[in-house]
Amino acid sequence: MTDTMSTTPPQQTALPGTLATDPAVRPAWTFRGWAEHLKLHRDLLAALVQREIKVRYKQSIMGFLWAILMPALIVGAGVIVKVAMAKLAGSSVSLDSLALVTVKAVPWAFFAATVKLSSTSLIANSNLVTKIYTPREVFPFAAVAAQSFDFLIGAVVLILLLPLFHLDLGARLLLVPVFVVELILLTAALALFLSAASLFFRDVKYLVEVFVTFGIFFTPVFYEATMFDKWSSLILLNPVAPILEGIGTAVVGGPFIATGWFIYSAVFAIVGFIVALIAFKRMEPYFAESV
Amino acid sequence: MSSLATPVLQVRNVSKKFRKGELYDSLRDLIPALTGRLFKLRKSGELGDRDFWALREVSFEVERGEAFGIIGSNGAGKSTILKLLSGIMKPTSGTVHVDGRLSALIEVGAGFHQDLTGRENVFLNGTILGMRREEIRRRFDEIVDFSGLEDFIDTPVKRYSSGMYARLGFSVAAHVEPDLLIVDEVLSVGDYVFQRKCTEKMASIIKSGATVVFVSHNLRAVAALCERSLLLERGQVRKIGPTRDVLKMYLDRAYATRDSDHAPKDVHIERIEVSRQDGTPAVEVTPGERVRVAIRVKARANVEKLAVVLSLTDDGQYEVFNTSTERLGAGTFSLNAGGVFNCSFDLDLHLTQGTFHVGCLLYRYDIQREYDRWSPAGTFFVNSAVDVRGAANLYPRLTRHEVETAAGREAAAR
Known about the structure:
The structure holds 2 protein chains of 2 kinds.
Chain A: H1 31-40, H2 42-58, H3 65-89, H4 95-119, H5 121-124, H6 126-129, H7 138-161, H8 175-200, H9 204-218, H10 232-236, H11 240-252, H12 259-283, H13 287-290
Helix pairs in contact in A: 2-7, 3-4, 3-7, 4-7, 4-8, 4-9, 4-11, 7-8, 8-11, 8-12, 11-12
Chain B: E1 9-19, H1 27-39, E2 51-62, E3 67-71, H2 78-85, E4 93-98, E5 102-105, H3 118-128, H4 133-147, H5 162-174, E6 180-184, H6 192-207, E7 211-215, H7 219-225, E8 228-233, E9 236-242, H8 243-256, E10 267-275, E11 284-285, E12 290-299, E13 303-314, E14 319-324, H9 326-330, E15 333-335, E16 340-348, E17 354-364, E18 369-382, H10 406-413
Parallel strand pairs in B: 3-7, 3-8, 5-6, 6-7, 11-18
Antiparallel strand pairs in B: 1-2, 1-4, 8-9, 10-12, 12-16, 13-14, 13-15, 13-17, 17-18
Helix pairs in contact in B: 3-4, 3-5, 4-5
């Protein structure tokens, strides 16, 4: 790469309401400049999200049930695991531990499905990637946003089910949105990174599938990290783990894990997002040639 | 703000290098490849064993309000240049500078989703092409009206015919109103009436002051729309200038290069000559003039039951005439290895003014097997003193023309 490209004369910014689709008009990369550029394309992002959702619900008989199918299956599996573990321990299954599985299944289902879907988001839109210039991050972002819609449906159903567990709900519920935002940010980081990587390397897609399938065993969904005593740190190194534990505790109650873990996963999500975004933007010019 | 003085599009010394074959396609291949790279670093100006230049040192400018054509044979780098202009790809070196809003029509209906209705796709495709939602809403009726698909707008596009699909796609794209519109081959879609509509729309977009870069195989469309053109050849600029000159150079070179890249066949067309009655090559003729097309066929192996087809096409690839040795009563002919067949067609060119191309096809009559095709094998212009258009020259004479005023008619009635 020669640097003639960067010697392009400075360019006036686009008028409000018009789109600067030309590479020379793109301002030097700053987070602010990026956000403004993306803002110009917000209608496109909205249209893509709408497309994802419409297409998914248009011709499926199950319609909105799709959104709760995965969490429901995970809850079912979780209940079986819990019952089996209780049998081994010779105790009975507490309502709280069932509530924990149910609460954690919904964000995990979102995470797993989104990572899988978004990692192929650029490949799936290859006809657009090779034919039209748009900021390419709209594709993984649209996948994340469309999945968030399913997440929302799952969450609503979950809220309706909560009274069954006779929980002692408190002010700590206010922490849930914070954890959810953190989870979405982390997922978006992975979406950016994996969508670009799978464009260059075809086997990334299969790696993602394997990791997502087995990820549930390495993430505290069916169990709590604290069950492992001194080994619990190993479980919590997985940045999704503190988020799920946080959501679980905030809804069901009990002692929170050490605050340091929450800071760790928040930093992981924020730094991960920035790094993934920079890497994505740097690789972007080569997407069209690599599809 | 953009001023009139600066060109809308400036392309300076743009080169683009591609690698033949795949990049590292999987992570498994990456690790050995990376270790290999550590020992052999390469600068971007050099070519590796598997690299090639898709474009080399291409420079041109397009002024505001200008329609600019890019022509060249397949593989000359036309598509690559479009992708660089629209920002889809980044040049290996050089700069592309666009002043204002750019819209690229590289494929009509790109981004249409099969399961969505026409209406939903208008919004989706419009935003993809860079329109604001509000803008699409405002011009929605206009877009649908232009496409002529009012009755099907709420039908999923997967039930559309390919023509309907293309019509809707062009309609959306034609309403984007960019400062610079890049068009690739879109005029070759839809039925004749819609093609006319597209050409007219393009002309009106150009007239309204937009700048258009037009890449096409349809030479007539380029000639009709663009004052200035660029001829690309193997990734390099061969000529930039008035479209007529560039087209002539392109056509001349296309014939000249035919023999060199011609693979040996059992039997092939060796020579085609189009000459006037005085024996000089026919370049410019008058309507009704008689020309002779002499064709020489040579065999490398024994072949039988052959026939030669002669055709004339106009600039829009429309075939205006077609005949064959067999149809003219010569029957079929057979050749031994090394044998030669000569034939001449005398044609009375009752044509209107325009550019016409002579084509020739050699085939085996009974099994309809094509041996060789040479098209276009020659080009001539018909120059008419009378302004007549269309395919056939009917030598019109205006036998009466007078104006009847309303007062005069009333007087006659009384």
